[in-house]
């Protein structure tokens, strides 16, 4: 799908405020509401806009600990990757998982109430036959807001 300058303005406005009304979006990108709605639908149907989401501060309600985990598997067959991915998908504390190239196979982002809860999760994963060869844990001490806008 080829995007023009107006499409890019629509996407930038949505990145700044995903809850913007369609009327306000049309005003911001200098289109009629009907033309803006048509472009928005085209971007959604074309897969450029995959969905809308909320940014949630998990620490707002109660203290949380975030741990970044590097995982290396002992074997690298497609079935090994599938078995690992299916197992971690069942763990609600794992809030993100990225398969990577290079020296490690996966990067996990884990959000738990405390370090003890994290250790219980890791112990549970290590007890399963999902091929974890080694893991390294990094406790997040601060999340740095990037404050990007105006794309």
UniProtKB/TrEMBL annotation:
InterPro entries, alphabetically?
AsnC-type_HTH_dom (IPR000485), Dimeric_a/b-barrel (IPR011008), Tscrpt_reg_AsnC-like (IPR019888), Tscrpt_reg_AsnC/Lrp_C (IPR019887), WH-like_DNA-bd_sf (IPR036388), WH_DNA-bd_sf (IPR036390)
Keyword list (alphabetical) reads:
DNA-binding, Transcription, Transcription regulation
Locate the HTH asnC-type domain: which residues?
3-63
* Record's protein name: Lrp/AsnC family transcriptional regulator of ectoine degradation
This protein's species is Ancylobacter vacuolatus
